[in-house]
Amino acid sequence: xxxxxxxxxxxxxxxxxxxxxxxxxxxxxxxxxxxxxxxxxxxxxxxxxxxxxxxxxxxxxxxxxxxxxxxxxxxxxxxxxxxxxxxxxxxxxxxxxxxxxxxxxxxxxxxxxxxxxxxxxxxxxxxxxxxxxxxxxxxxxxxxxxxxxxxxxxxxxxxxxxxxxxxxxxxxxxxxxxxxxxxxxxxxxxxxxxxxxxxxxxxxxxxxxxxxxxxxxxxxxxxxxxxxxxxxxxxxxxxxxxxxxxxxxxxxxxxxxxxxxxxxxxxxxxxxxxxxxxxxxxxxxxxxxxxxxxxxxxxxxxxxxxxxxxxxxxxxxxxxxxxxxxxxxxxxxxxxxxxxxxxxxxxxxxxxxxxxxxxxxxxxxxxxxxxxxxxxxxxxxxxxxxxxxxxxxxxxxxxxxxxxxxxxxxxxxxxxxxxxxxxxxxxxxxxxx
Length: 433
Known about the structure:
It is found in: Cytoplasm. Belongs to the sestrin family. This is SESN3 protein. It holds the Pfam family PA26. This protein is mainly α. It has one domain. It contains 22 helices and five strands. Strand 2 and strand 3 (259-261) form a beta hairpin. Helix 6 (87-95) packs across helix 8.
């Protein structure tokens, strides 16, 4: 199997990649509060907020492999209310996490038969934050553009039997072990690409058949003599007019044998115009500045998330520490400062855009450390990654090596993820109190 684009980029920093793969595997494939198909659907919802077709397509395939109901892929109107109720905090966390309140949490936990448990909600929140931040990395490093997913919708299938959607570089011990476990856990460890295509096409045909039967039966009941023919005709024409409910459900095979995606990302979103707004321009009655001294990952978030979703706190903490410990001496030297100072400037600038402040930090340093073009790049990738164009990675901050640019994108990924988690976990804490 070939290396996925994201793994190739993270491979410049193998220790971090190893930690990322462990966390990714644990979130998606190990025992946890949420069913496996729901995990991938939540990932689809999260990636769709940023129009990240790369991640949506990968999780659509994983969703089907996990036995997910193909009808769910028609959009939010066709999923269980419990999952659909998650849409509001998905939207807020993706764009304005400071708006999350304990009322949002209470609403999810107290909706009669569709209520979430605390453990389920924590798992879902971590998944949402993980995929939002990963979408930033995908756009920031040009993976979306490189794969051509934004224009052609090309879906690169997984290696047979590989349940984790990133394959690790050769020689990475932990990642090789993950691949072994993934293959063992696969729904069919002998499944080849051809059989996977055959399965998806079979489901497609069966769904079309059920829909035509339903239309015919409906027409007969209404007693419309010519309605049956019209109903079947409409179903057959749906490939062009998108009126067939089965269109957009499955990856389809093109004439070259590639698997392509017909997924319409808009169906996984509500309120698509809701996006990032500068925190500094918030209304006076909105959330006040989030002070890390009052609620931090180390003192509060870690223990809460680890208690409600066993071991995930340790995995997340390891990623946060590893990205902070990555070597960047050459990168910092070009900026005329110590590596730790440069990295902290980037981290605190990202958190500042989400309204998170550190009382012991002089924010005047940000303007001194980060040149304007680098700040523009960081803000775009962090706040509206879908607006990142294919030239930004190459044209901005040319003095940096490729591995250093990837390092900056890893800082964006982890700082953004921690910011979303801080707001969500604080709201859960307030609800519990």
